[in-house]
Each structure stands twice: as C-alpha cells, then as structure tokens.
C-alpha cells in the first residue's frame, strides 16, 4: 500500500510543479535600470526628449527608466545624480544644466563603473562613456546657407538670440556669423536677446522700426520665431520679412505647424535625441558595439518638405498609439490565459490522479513477473562490468606509474636547471663584489682623484650595483620557487614607508619633467609588513612607471583603506599603456612585451613583484588603457598571522632604481669641471641614447675637440644638418630612428654626405658589422670599446678628411673650374661652382646670396665648404674669379679693365692687386707672356 501511494505521489509531482511554474508571476523585476538626470522639463523641446525616450522604451519592457527634474539648478542636479547612484542604476543619462558644477558628480559615477551618456550638452571632463546630441554650430551654418539661398545672397538680417550664456546660443550664433562671411552682401544689422521659453520680444519691434530694410529674421528656436512673426504682423511686415526658426518639433504652434501655416518660412531641425540616447544605452548594456560620439544630423524644413515631415510624424504617433493599445490588449490576454491555465491544470491533475491509481494496480502485477527476469540480466551485466573495471584499473595504474616517472624526471631536470641557475648567479656575485669593493675604496679614500677620474669610478660603481641588483632578483626568484623566502613582518606606518621610497624617485623624475604626486588618505596607516619584501615590490613598480612615463608626464601614488581589513597602494602613470596581447603575460618570468621606444628590461621586475606580494598574503592587480597609462594596485592585509611576525623590525634595504639607463645622469657638482670644450675648431657630434655612455663619450672627446650631444636619432640628424660637424660618433641601437638609418640619411643628404661617422654598438656579429659599413659608416666599433682607440680613430679619420680636402682644392686649381661628378661632395662642388660662375659679374655677390640660392643657412654653407675644401666661401669665390680671369686675359678683344668689371671686381686696381697676390704676376705681364706679339 505504501508503494502504491508513493507511485501516485511520484506521478502527481510533475503536474503540481508544472502548475506552480505556470501560475501568474507577480511583480517581475526589470532586467536593467536607467537613471535620467534632466536639467529641466520646461518647454516642448525637453518634453519631446522624454517622449522619445519613453517611445523607444515601449519596445523594451524589461528596462526601467527613472527621471529626475533639476529645474535648471546645478546643485540640485548634483544631488539627484548621487541619489540615482545610491538607488542602484545600471546606466546614467545626464543632460547637464551647467558643464562645470555637474562634472564632479558625473565623474564619480564614471569611476564607480556606471556607464554615463551625456545628452545634448557636455560636461567639463572627458570621463564619460558616450555623447548624444546635435551640433549647434552646424545648425547656425545650415540656417545661414539657407538664408543666402532664400535672399539670393543679398539682404539685411536681424538675429534673435537664445538665453545669454547658453552654449547653444553661442554656438548657433558662431556658426551663423562664420558662414555669412562668405556672402559679403548679407549682413546682420541688429541682434535681439530673447529667452528659450519667452515668446514676447518687445526689443524686436524697436529693431525693425530702426532698420526697415530688414528682409529676414533668424530666431534661435521656433518659440521665439513665433513671437517674431507676431511682431511682424502687428507692424504689417508679415508679407515682407521671412523668418527662420530652430527645432522643427511636431505639435500645435511648434516648428512643423508654423512652417505649414506659413508663420515661419523654415525651421532647422534640432533633434531632442531621446530615442538615440536609449538606443545607445541599450547597446552599452547589452555589450554591443556603439559609437562614443553620436552627432545628430540636421535638415531645413520648409514648404518643400514640411508636409512629408508632418505625415511621417503623424504616422509615427499613430504607430505608437497602436503599439500601446496592442501592449494593453496583450496584458489582458495574459491575465485571462493565466486564470484559464490554473483551472486547466487543476482538472489535469485530477484526471492524472485517477489514471495513475488505475495503472498502479496493473503495474504491480506486471512488475512482479519482470523483476526476477531483470535481476538475472542485471547479475550477468554486473559480472561483465566488473571484468571491464578490473581491466581498466590495471591500465590506469600502468599509466599513472608512467606519469609519475615522467613527472619525477621533469622535477629532477627542473631542479638541476634551477640549481645551475642559482650557482651561476652566486658565481656572478663574487666578481661583482670584487669590482665594487675597490671602486668604493677608491671613491672614499683617494682625495687626489681628479673630477674626471672620480666621475668614471662613479659610473663603474653605479653599473656594478645594477648588475648586483639583477643577480639579487635572480636569487629572489629562486627563493620564491623553492619556498625559501621568509616573511618577517613588524608593525609600522605604511604611509611613511612608501613615502621614503617615493622620495628616492623624486630627483630622476624631476630631471625628466615627470610630476610625482603622493596622496595618502590618512597620515598614519598602521599595518604589519616586511619592509625588505615590500621595498622590492614598490621599487620595481615605481621603476616601471618612471620608465614608461614620457617626459612631462605624471605618476600618482595613492594610499587608502581597502575593503575589510586591507590597505590599497596604487601607482598610476600616464604612459603608453599595456597592449591587449601583453596583458595576459606581464606577470610571467622573463617575459618582455612590446615596450615601444624605451629600452627593454630583464623581464623579471613585475613577476618578482607579484611573487613577493603573494608571499605577503596580498594581491597585485593592474588596469590599463592603451595610450592613457596604467595603474598597478597592491592590496595588503593589515594583520598577518603570528608565524609571519617578527619581534624586531627588519630595516629595509633600499634598492637602486630598476632601469637606471632610462633616467637622467647626475654626477653632482664635479661635472662642471669637465664640460669645458678644448680650444679646437673641430666639432664632433655624439648621438647616444644612454645618458651615461653619452656623457662618458663627450667627456673623453672634449679634451681634444668641441663636442655637441644628442640623445636620439631624430634630434641627432637635425643637429647634424644644422651644425655640419666635422665627425659624428653614433650608437646603432636607439629608439625611434636607429643608428643605421641615421647614417643612411646623412649619406643621402649633400649637406652632411662628407661627414665621417664612427658607429658604436653591442652587436658584434660579422654580418652586423658588414651591415653598418654598407650603410656608410667609416668605422664600426663594438662595446665595450677602448677609449684611447676611439680617440685615435677619430683623429685618423679627421686626418684622412684633410687629405681629401687637399685633393678637391687641386681639382679646382686647374684651368677649368669644373669638377667631375662622382660622389655627393663632388656634386655639391659642381653645383656651387656653377652658381658662382653664373653670378661672377655681380660686384655685391655675398655668402648670404649663395646660401639662399642653395636653400641652406650661411653657417651650414660655411661649414660644408670648410669641411670639403678647407677654405672659406669668400676665398672660394675669389679663387673662381681669378681662375676665370686667366681665361679672359687671353682674349685680346678685352682690356684689363673690362676683364676686371666682367668678373665683378670693384676696380681694375683691386683686380690687379688680387691677381698678382695669387699668381705672383700682374695681369698685363700674364697677357704679354701668353700672347705672342703680332708683326
């Protein structure tokens, strides 16, 4: 009997469950909640905006809209926005009354992660998700163009402005005035200040009487356009003066109605944008693509299209009414269906119960016969399954043994690699320590060192410390891997601890113009932490921030209480951000992503920081937007377990900066003693992106030459074309424009094609050296280089260049002043010679004239000629004149005076003096010597 009752209840349960699920549900919660902060509901245009929202939302019954009216009060609107946020909205739509006062509340919503749509007007900040609105500047421009067509480009206009100070007023006036400048016969003779909601315009009557020649009025909205039409009717000008309004709304006495009745000649459509705002909001909520900037278009509504616009509006209103009636009918049908469904399922349950009771008796007899047969089949099946399970267990056991053997072998291999890794790191520490010790001793106990020696030793010490830091990071990595890194926390003030680390970055940041902002919510935030561990974490994070923040950028370090018993330290920069492909890997050991123009690091900093934070039972997270910067957040517990606490606080060991090559070099006051250039006319340009190597090269070369420096390829090439140096020392690997590209550009530019180039690089493969020589380098040195060898190589290249200048001078000293074109230097000499020869007759021919003709500066011309010929430009011109004089003196038809004036000499006597100084013979003696006497 119990089994029969159980079977009956078992069959009855699905029907009861189905009946419960189909019962009418009351009070279904909306899927999304949208908050709308409206600056004001005064006026038909604002009413049309809300009506458009409600019309679009009628297709989405799962979305709830809550609208609050601020009545044109910015303080009230701020409070209402925060009230909407407290109410738990999924998206916020704001139509601001004033941009500035409302901005903080909008930014607060945006920072909370609530999407923000600005409707019709903007705030004073770029922190918003999307903007929907019309272009008031385009409205003014469209009205002006239509007015020009309407008046055949000739007429006088009165402009009725909207509320003073409104952005719509200023932008519509600006667009209208700017466009009218293209029509000189059209002019605004008067402006009348109105109000968006005020239809009476007493000042307009005065303006019309003062300017009877007015033929058109441009009103900033249709309400003021209707007021202007009433003034014209009272003055009997309604047939003469045409009126253009703005908005083009439907409804009695609105834009469409006024144009259709002839009260206004035209109205420029300015859409309220309610439907577009809701459509954009739904795209954002549904995670669909959307446009951030949604500018609504505008058209002119006049007699040619107003009927079509009115018909479309009437049809839309009719369709909306049909939709509302259908929705009402659907709700009534659902209620009827729910009540009938309840009765139907009640009858179904009753019928099902009677059927089940009848079947239970029949099934009981049938089951008794089948049970024995099923038991026999089940026993046979169980035996078969047991045999299969035994076989599978043996196979799984064998596979497990193989996997354990492979895993053990992998652990042994990994352990051997890590052991070698650790031993190698320890081996590095010994020679680095032996280097650092003597250097420190020399710096502290050798008072007779000169400034240059002290500076070199400081350079050795700084880079040795850098290598030691990398080795320490490798060892820390090994300790974390094997669980040997211990936390010894003590209670202290986290604010003071972080501030001390930030202070270490203040000077290198200031040298690059980077602003460091330290913001602590409270002056004291006590916590249990291990200073030695967190010191490495924050140094790595700040080093990365400084490395990737451009010059004149900003880094913000913030400390505040987190959720629960936690503290949050965030480091935000304004750098290039982290690409999508790098985000999943930045915490991996030795991973180096796309770092752009900055020098690559070791790939250990962030991985080590995350491992140390986790060891400290904290969490390291980040957020980044490409092109806007990155923010790393360290979340730490305020309390730590007893086993992680230490009785004596451990003093943190401050690290050196993670990427010193990215920071400006500072050698202290001794630098001034080595910056004076040698008394030499030879100018050497150093192009090196590493500031320490750059300074080292400059100091070594300044003993013998004048030196200019550049820190990247682009600025180096600009300096080379401006200064025309005698020699260039250039690094190969540089961000932006590489050294090979610099050499190629130098060789392709005739201004710099003659300059010898020495290339320095760490790339020492033979094919890479061939590549440098093929690019045009005169000498290719690999780092580390011998400074003495570099200096002697520079002197040799300059000596070779002097011999080349002597060769060019000999070519120019022959009777023909023409130089055969072989290389860019000879091509330059050919062009220069042709230019001077074409102007030899000019007495006032100057260096400035020649430089201007060649398209370069006077200084560039002087240094180019000096580098190629070893002489000045004036001497070169004189040499060509005297060479040409020998040719002309052989012509007996010309007198010596005529030759002098033909070659641009100011007087025959000056010509004779110059000729004799050059050739040790007077012009008359030269002529008599080379021309045979006639008999």
Account of the protein in words:
The relative contact order is 0.04. Among the domains are: about 135-265, Rossmann fold, CATH 3.40.50; about 485-635, Heat Shock Protein 90 (2-Layer Sandwich); about 675-805, Response regulator (Rossmann fold), CATH 3.40.50.2300; about 815-930, Arc Repressor Mutant, subunit A, CATH 1.10.10. Residues about 20-25, about 650-675 and about 815-820 have low confidence and may be disordered. The strands form five sheets. The chain has a six-stranded parallel β-sheet with strand order 2-1-3-4-5-11, sandwiched between helices. A six-stranded mixed β-sheet has the order 7-6-8-9-10-12, sandwiched between helices. The protein has about 950 residues and is α/β, with parallel strands linked by helices. Helix 12 (about 450-480) crosses helix 17 (about 605-615) and helix 19 (about 715-725) packs parallel to helix 20. The radius of gyration is 44 Å and the shape is flat. The N and C termini lie far apart (about 165 Å). The longest helix is centred in the middle third of the chain and has 140 residues, at about 305-445.
